[in-house]
Fold this protein.
Amino acid sequence: QVELTESGGGLVQPGGSMNLSCRVSETLNTFYYVGWYRQAPGKERELVIRSTNFGTFHYRDSVEGRFTISRDNARNIVDLQMKSLKPEDTAVYYCFALRRGTTYWGQGTQVTVSS
């Protein structure tokens, strides 16, 4: 069973920065996509950012230029660096990994952007 364990999250002021980290229990390069989704209260889960093991990236328009994904293939860690945070970034953030049609999820971590 693939396990994804997230860390980070919490409360940050608008304009601030925050890093999330996700440790995957299996080799990152065995997954076609790894990345992050988020779900705000009353809204559907939406893709934030993802990367492929070919080195390509896809960003949600609203986070491009503010959010960055990085992969540590040696340690099987996927990080999400967030800056210039806005109240509308408030959500539960979920790490995910996709392999052969199956998506694996982390437990989710709350990010609240508020003064």
